[in-house]
Amino acid sequence: MKMVKKLMLVLVCVVWLSGCSKVTRDNYEKIEMGMEYTQVVALIGEPDSCDAALGAKSCVWGNETKNIKVKFIADKVAMPSMTGL
């Protein structure tokens, strides 16, 4: 019986933590022009996707309805934007 309770506790914690997204308006407002890519990753985690071309990189955190998008030039924030936050 103790094993079942421990397993249930672990499952509850996993579900609870998976709902904790760093894609928030507060974190978006902490992103500053010129901030380095590594600083943004430290703030909101690894991006869900990135596209790169000609020294520029565009990364997205989140999904189509709730996201943070950041365009980087030379690995520095050039244009942040958000949707649904």
Describe the main β-sheet briefly.
4 strands, antiparallel
> Class by helix and strand content?
alpha+beta
Q: What is the CATH topology classification name?
A: Beta-lactamase Inhibitory Protein, Chain:B, domain 1
The tally of domains stands at 1
Low-confidence stretches: 7-19
Order of helices and strands: HHHEEEE
Name of the CATH class: Alpha Beta
Strand % is 25-35%
What do these coordinates show?
With 85 residues, the chain is of the alpha+beta class. It has one domain (22-83): Beta-lactamase Inhibitory Protein, Chain:B, domain 1 (2-Layer Sandwich). The protein is 36% helix and 32% strand. It is built from 3 helices and 4 strands; from the N terminus they run αααββββ. A 4-stranded antiparallel sheet has the order 1-2-3-4, with no helix packed on it. It is globular.
